[in-house]
Specification:
The protein has two helices and two strands; from the N terminus they run E-E-H-H. By secondary structure, it is largely without helices or strands. The chain has a single domain, classed as 3 Solenoid (Pectate Lyase C-like), CATH 2.160.20. It has a two-stranded antiparallel sheet with strand order 1-2. Strand 1 and strand 2 form a beta hairpin. The longest helix has 10 residues. The protein is elongated, with a radius of gyration of 14 Å. The N and C termini lie far apart (52 Å).
Length: 124
């Protein structure tokens, strides 16, 4: 399966896996830099994407429920409309990411805020 760049259409990673989730797992394991990857609308439920390098990737309307995105580099990624309920986001870098209409659980607010570089404190 091939993963292509969202604007140039060049292949950024390829392997013989049967599913996109398996291909992404292989790419992450290989340390592939998937900057600008076109993953719009991808079904990545429970995908293992820990420490993935997905800066400026298009993950709009992707199903990332339960995905392990701990430590993932998602700076500038387009996540508009993505479903992140139950995704593990601790240590992820979401700086500059597009998050309009993203779906998360209330319990994920702290991790998302930290991933955006915000300092969260309790009200006095």
């Amino acid at each position: 399966m091939k993963i292509k760049h969202r604007t140039t259409n060049e292949t950024v990673f390829t392997d013989d896996a049967a599913t996109l989730a398996e291909t992404l797992r292989a790419a992450v394991a290989a340390g592939a830099y998937l900057r600008g990857a076109d993953l719009r609308g991808a079904y990545l439920r429970d995908a293992l994407l820990r420490d993935a390098l997905l800066g400026v990737a298009d993950l709009g309307v992707a199903d990332l429920r339960g995905a392990d995105l701990r430590g993932a580099y998602l700076r500038g990624a387009d996540l508009r409309g993505a479903d992140l309920r139950g995704a593990y986001l601790r240590g992820a870098d979401l700086g500059g990411a597009y998050l309009r209409d993203v779906t998360i659980n209330a319990g994920q607010l702290q991790d998302v805020a930290v991933a955006l570089g915000l300092v969260v404190t309790e009200a006095a």
